[in-house]
Amino acid sequence: MAQTIPGLHHVTAISGPPQANVDFYVGTLLQRLVKKTVNFDDPGTYHLYYGNSRAEPGSILTFFPFVDAGPGRAGPGMASAVAYAVPKGGLDAWMMALAEAAVEFDGPLERFGEQLIAVTDPDGLRIELIETDRGATQSISTDGTPVDDGFHSVTLWLDNPDRTARLLTDVFGYTNAGEASKGGETRQRFLAAGQGRGSAIDLITSNAASIGRQGAGSIHHVAFRAENDDVQKGWQDTLRSHGFDVTPQIDRQYFNAIYFREPGGVLFEIATDPPGFATDEPMETLGEALKLPAQHEHLRDQIDRILPPVTIPKGDSRAQ
């Protein structure tokens, strides 16, 4: 049987000051802060990881929070939105919770037979909550809000999606699940084999005039899952055989990574499931302490002085 991608591993974005980012993703979206570390290439900047209660691949949204970051803007050649899965019947509780917190949202809307709402984070990144029975675990928080299902999908904005679509179907093993057009936007959906957590990728073209720009509120890259190093090496060989310029394996402490640009310009990564986020701290206390890679440990005192303090909001029922 040919090797296939099982779905998303993580999505990495850029934000402004870290406290507003933590307040939104932990306090409002009820994600768990599963790792507080630094940008390995710029240790004077945090790298914050949010995920479900078990810090599982397919639930991880990460941020490089730059205090002085200029505003980013989605456009062709970029990922433009991240969507979380909500179990059937769960949107009502989310809409009530967001309204009570005075958080504006769009919707409910319908897309490919599924109901969704959309919010923007403090830096303008579009986050969607999509009600689905595909891969949902039916996890419920103490206030009745479904919170623990991880990703539904990510949206890529492309000038011409044809070559990206062929990469997804002919190389990654996705299937074309439909196309819809509305208001000057055409959207195609692709589903990974198994249709579990984070299995959908949407490709859109739009007549909206926008020139994409990296900055706060923009997505830096999209990462797909590889079950282990051997599987990742297989993808490295396969992609190179299809003419993609793939990096060597890079150790990211909690997974190993390879990177390449897909035909539409979006930076793709393939990341291994192991070793996982509990490799350097217990699962019960993930995200509470600043964790540094070995090459930066000798700089801890200096890094502690540079990084702004961050307080984790109380009340995340999944961090227990």
CATH topology: 2,3-Dihydroxybiphenyl 1,2-Dioxygenase, domain 1
Q: Strand-and-helix sequence, N→C?
A: EHEEEEHEEEEHEEEEHEEEH
Major β-sheet profile: 8 strands, mixed
Quote the beta fraction: 35-45%
Number of domains: 1
By CATH reckoning, the class would read Alpha Beta
What would the average pLDDT be, to the nearest integer? Answer: 92
Instruction: Give the termini separation.
Output: 40 Å
* Contiguous uncertain segments of 5+ residues: 316-320
> How are strands sequenced across the largest beta sheet?
2-3-4-1-13-16-15-14
Which word captures the global form? globular
Helix content: 10-25%
Instruction: Assign the structural class, choosing from mainly alpha, mainly beta, alpha/beta, alpha+beta, or little secondary structure.
Output: alpha+beta
Number of strands: 16
List strands and helices in order, with pairings.
Blueprint: E1 8-15, H1 18-28, E2 32-39, E3 42-51, E4 60-65, E5 78-86, H2 91-100, E6 106-111, E7 114-120, E8 126-131, E9 151-157, H3 162-171, E10 175-182, E11 185-191, E12 200-206, E13 219-226, H4 229-241, E14 250-251, E15 255-261, E16 267-275, H5 300-306
Parallel strand pairs: 1-4, 5-8, 9-12, 13-16
Antiparallel strand pairs: 1-13, 2-3, 3-4, 5-9, 6-7, 7-8, 10-11, 11-12, 14-15, 15-16
Can you give me a brief rundown of this structure?
The chain is built from 5 helices and 16 strands.
